[in-house]
Specification:
Layout lengths: L11 H8 L3 H8 L3 H12 L2 H17 L10 H21 L19 E2 L29 H5 L1 H8 L3 H12 L4 H7 L4 H18 L14 H15 L3 H7 E9 L2 E6 L1 H10 L8 E8 L2 E9 L6 E12 L11 E8 L13 E2 L2
Parallel strand pairs: 2-7
Antiparallel strand pairs: 1-3, 2-3, 4-5, 5-6, 6-7, 6-8
Helix pairs in contact: 1-2, 3-4, 3-5, 4-5, 5-9, 8-10, 9-10, 11-12, 12-13
Length: 355
């Protein structure tokens, strides 16, 4: 996804017209990059809405600052410079403001978690927003494939990094910009960029699951649909044994920004068995797609029947056959539940299902 980072597009006649005040010429220059800039901002910020707002601000700043654009750089690199620094400014300002309060704890006794992490504030990314991305390879310096760098586990890992390390890693290892280009974008020395990159890589690799990209079910493949379908079936039937059978041995259940995290079959099974609705077949799941993989809108039916109301969004992270499944099956490496029902409309999902 995205244009190759080394590609040069300095603007040509459209740039000259835009500098003369032609707004349509500026749109011709900038619009092809809107979708990839939004994904870039999402990776750094972890928020779809913040990413959308930041891209709008980026394009406005670029329009106003067009006179200062030096054609020695590509238009794309110039826009990435503006967008990245806007993201860093937003994160810096957010650090001075109090965080939103955590959602209320579940109204039932939850089992002791495997670990308690710091609250992590990030959201899933609708696959529908990926449709406008150009299909091109990242730059030659990139270390992550497009699918890996979009995965929810990758985005969650980024949010644990300091903002500047986050930006450097995305620019270098995801987009493939050269070290000198990144240094110019961030007004930093090459030494500082390389140091930040090494620290970011070390931290991120500790948090990411092992790569088995060759054995993972391909997006939208029959294998992926079958695995996601089995997950929906066992949850809707309150089948904890069936759920455990779909998980890798070291699977995680997380509920960001809630700090409780559960790992492994026993811990995850205990959590689901503690749910007050488990066993009553009160849950319904509607399929969606997030971060390049399967997701579901969850709905709980009212006691005694009737309408089913939104109960958050569930995103699955899949693993290959080497993670404990029979050949050709694949397994689920992580179940991530977002309790914010306001996310559902972004995925084309309703807030209520009729009875």
């Amino acid at each position: 996804m995205g244009h190759a980072a080394g590609a040069v597009r300095t603007g040509g006649p459209a740039l000259e017209r835009a500098r003369a005040g032609d707004g349509e010429a500026f749109r011709e220059l900038a619009e092809p990059y809107r979708s990839e800039l939004q994904l870039h901002c999402y990776r750094i910020l972890g928020s779809v809405q913040d990413a959308e707002d930041t891209v709008q601000e980026t394009l406005l700043a670029a329009w106003r600052g067009l006179g200062g654009f030096e054609s020695r750089a590509s238009v794309r690199a110039w826009l990435y410079r503006i967008a990245t620094n806007r993201c860093l400014n937003l994160l810096r300002d957010a650090g001075r403001r109090p965080r939103p309060s955590l959602p209320a704890r579940p109204p039932f006794d939850v089992p002791e978690p495997t670990r308690r992490a710091d609250p992590s504030w990030y959201e899933p990314y609708p696959d529908a927003l990926l449709d406008g991305l150009p299909d091109a390879a990242p730059g030659p310096e990139a270390r992550y494939e497009a699918r890996e760098s979009l995965a929810l586990a990758f985005v969650a890992g980024l949010q644990r990094l300091p903002p500047r390390q986050r930006a450097v890693l995305v620019l270098r290892d995801v987009l493939g910009f050269r070290a000198a280009e990144v240094a110019g974008m961030l007004d930093a020395s090459g030494v500082a960029v390389n140091s930040a990159l090494q620290r970011a890589r070390a931290t991120l690799e500790e948090r990411l699951p092992g790569r088995d990209r060759d054995r993972m079910p391909l997006p939208r493949s029959a294998r992926e649909r079958a695995l996601a379908g089995r997950f929906a079936e066992v949850l809707e039937n309150s089948d904890v044994d069936g759920l455990v059978a779909l998980l890798t041995d070291d699977a995680w259940l997380t509920m960001p920004p809630e700090p409780l995290e559960y790992q492994g079959h026993a811990a995850i099974a205990a959590f689901y068995r503690a749910l007050p609705w488990w066993g009553g077949r009160a849950l319904r799941l509607l399929p969606a797609r997030a971060n390049g993989g399967p997701a579901f809108g969850a709905y709980l039916r009212e006691p005694g029947g009737g309408a089913a109301r939104a109960y958050g969004l569930v995103v699955l992270t899949l693993a290959g056959d080497g993670a404990g499944g029979a050949a050709g099956e694949g397994r689920i490496a992580a179940v991530t539940r977002f309790g914010d029902n306001g996310l559902l409309p972004r995925f084309g999902l309703p807030l209520e299902l009729p009875g």
